[in-house]
Amino acid sequence: IGGLAVILHGYPRQTADVDLLVARKDAMVLVRALEQDGRFRRERLDRWRHVASGAGLDLCVEGELTHPSRRERFPAPDTLERVSKHPLEVVGLADLLVLKAKSGRAKDWADFVCLAKVLGLDDPLRVSILARLTDPEVAQLAERWWQEAAAELERERNVRPSWGDEGPAGDAHR
Description:
Blueprint: H1 3-8, E1 17-22, H2 24-37, E2 40-44, E3 47-50, E4 56-61, E5 82-85, E6 88-91, H3 93-103, H4 106-119, H5 123-131, H6 136-158
Parallel strand pairs: 1-4
Antiparallel strand pairs: 2-3, 3-4, 5-6
């Protein structure tokens, strides 16, 4: 549900961890399996590190807060759309953008805006995202992020590229 999902949905960016949404009933089973595996080192109950690669594994558990300063909670994994994006199955785009809005971190704002720009700003997607947000404050934030993406996309469309062919008076060299 994190950076890997963003990448697989079409916006390339770096990430150093895997964010995994886990059903509450499965969380402790997974924690015990990670403890016994030996390839992961526990940093916190919800944060693990792959010993060989150093990659992080964040467990996002159904019902837990999406961010310490928010009231939003992680949904049950089986309530979200899943899509196959080789080589993984990730959360669907609308649900991914909803989760980004719910966390509200700067990194999630950047992911939200970039994904919205890369994949197109169609109104049905915006309506779908807003319909899934029950907290009016978070819905307002998502709407603001959507408008920022639209404004940024419009600015980018209106920028005339400079190919280095202008002379001192702005005339093209022949």
